[in-house]
User: What shape does this take?
Amino acid sequence: MPTNTFLSLTNADLGLHSQQIQGVVYAPGLVCTRCLEPLNLGIVARDYGHLQLLGENCAEKFAPKRWIKQMESKKYFIKKSDFATDQDLSRSHRQYFRAAALNCQIDLDDVLIKRFLSSYRTGQWSPCFTMKEVIFYIKALGDLPLLLDRRDQISRMEVLIRLGMLLGRKLETITELIEKVRRGYWGLSIQNQQMVVATQNEFYGQLGEYTYQFLSHWPPKNGVISLD
Assistant: This one.
């Protein structure tokens, strides 16, 4: 069973303040605790004395746009320390850095990109490669929207397989699709995307319980919440 790790930022992390909003989460696979619709981004709000994870529409009364805007530049990462590195880079290198960070979450065995990402973080370039070689390799991985979509697809499906045998025959199918997205280039077909969404909608109750389990770990440590 994979560990599900979600980028989770408090108001203190973001330099924002609100009586109701406690932070923001990038969490493909979790659901809005009010309407139970699948999420990519969720607002953590204290509503009627209880923590809720709300989609943008359900959080509208709390004026969440500043929190949503903050997450736009951070959703590529899991390490909070990457935010400062990202901001210090030129526009072109920022694209390479974000692509490398996403690829390391998709392909867990890509040693070259891991070294490249480490070089950006430390400013000490490995003699194992030249910048030109790695940039050529990163460009071949696909553009940022494609990499982000693949990373998010994996996150959604890894949450689903936590349901185990409740999924029936879909458990094996979804497990195979995770590996296909990790090793492939394009991600899920439209048909498979529809299947994943339909499965999320079928098991919204169980996903709601899992989302409340996530909320029970709030506040995050070092910008993430991980569930084993």
Observations:
- The mean pLDDT is 95.
- DSSP finds ten helices and five strands in the chain.
